[in-house]
Amino acid sequence: MAGNVGGKNNEIDIKKQVVDGSRMAGKQSVIFRNPPYIIAGSSMAGKKEGEGPLGDMFDQVHEDYMVGKETWEEAESELMKLAAQKVIEKAGLKNSDIRYLVGGDLLGQLIATSFGVAELNIPIFGVYGACSTMGESMVLGSMLVEGGFADRVIAITSSHFAGAEKQFRFPLDYGNQRPYSASWTVTGSGAVIIANHKAANKKEGELDVVITGVTGGKIVDYGIKDSMNMGAAMAPAAFETIKQNFEDFNIRPSYYDKIITGDLGYVGANILKELLKENDYDISENHMDCGMEIYDQETQDTHAGGSGCACAAITFTSYVLKQLREGVWKRVLFVPTGALLSQVSFNEGNAVPGIAHAVMVESK
Q: Half-sphere exposure of residue 35, counting CA atoms within 13 Å on the CB side?
């Protein structure tokens, strides 16, 4: 199994890094005494995403980018509603079985989320971490469950190519040229249900998937002002969070079978690896970036790769969860990354800070 890649380092008991019965580890991390389970995941994808390497793994591919709605924003809300309904269905549950929903999106005031999940009648915490939102939602959701404040929580997010271009860059009708450093916002929505042991429903023939710990991210600003180079803006934040995870648990990169960043793309992934290498951490053998996996670089014109909240979300809920449940990977560090800009901050000449949140996920 791939879980043996790291040798002795993979057998480190990270719980030994915690003293006095606390759940706090190091400066920014949390270790769970009773790791919550990921009992189901769902993925809604757009046409372009369905044509990529992961197309066969998504729960549903929508050929119509409008998803039957009149606006891009309504289409994104519909994708989020469908993802929430699908994950509840896959878990064999009802809406009333979900204690809380934690989620967000890229649109102003989180309208894709609030309009999308309103009819589900589930208490909701709206969060914003730009493209790191799936990580933030899973971090907070797992804390709610492990802390005894909820038995089941949905963590969810979404993005839409046309909606993101309209809000952050140029309307599609403008027909602007895209530089090679630009990424392509993923159209889709991904969701997971996080549950405690009593609420977990083990499926025959599949390994359980649990969240063993998390590392919350800090805002990191290297002064990048190019909104068409999100990878460069987010890579420093990914570096800081991953390095802190290693330090907080006194582990090396080989502890994980895969270290999975959200949407750094080809530009940002190279920067991340160089930054870590300068600090004596080499992740070249086990790093994977969702933005590099979701599209075919040779046949799909996406330049630096995929981005957007849904990039990490639907890659995780389709591909990554499958590898964990089948035992191909035993232990991964899932690190969605976000660029914290708005139309106001960009037009006023501000830099683009980044943030990244890390979720430690294992199969057992």
A: 19
Please check whether residues 178 and 217 belong to one and the same domain: no
pLDDT digits (tens, 9 = 90+) for 44-53: 999 999 999 9
Report whether pLDDT(6) > 50: no
Residue that finishes a domain, picked among 195, 222, 237? 195
Q: Give the phi and the psi of residue 24 in degrees, each rounded to 5.
A: -80, 135
Name the residue range of residue 191's domain: 37-195
Identify the CATH number of the domain in which residue 355 sits. Answer: 3.40.47.40
- Cβ-based neighbour number of residue 223 at 10 Å: 10
Over the stretch 60-108, which tens digit does the pLDDT of each residue have?
Answer: 999 998 999 999 899 999 999 999 999 999 999 999 999 999 999 998 8
Closest CA to 39 of 156, 148, 152, 127: 152
- Let me know whether 62 and 166 are in one domain: yes
Q: DSSP label at 132?
A: T
Counted domains in the chain = 2
Residue 191 CB partners (closer than 8 Å, separation 6+): 41, 42, 83, 84, 86, 87, 103, 154, 155, 156, 157, 313, 317
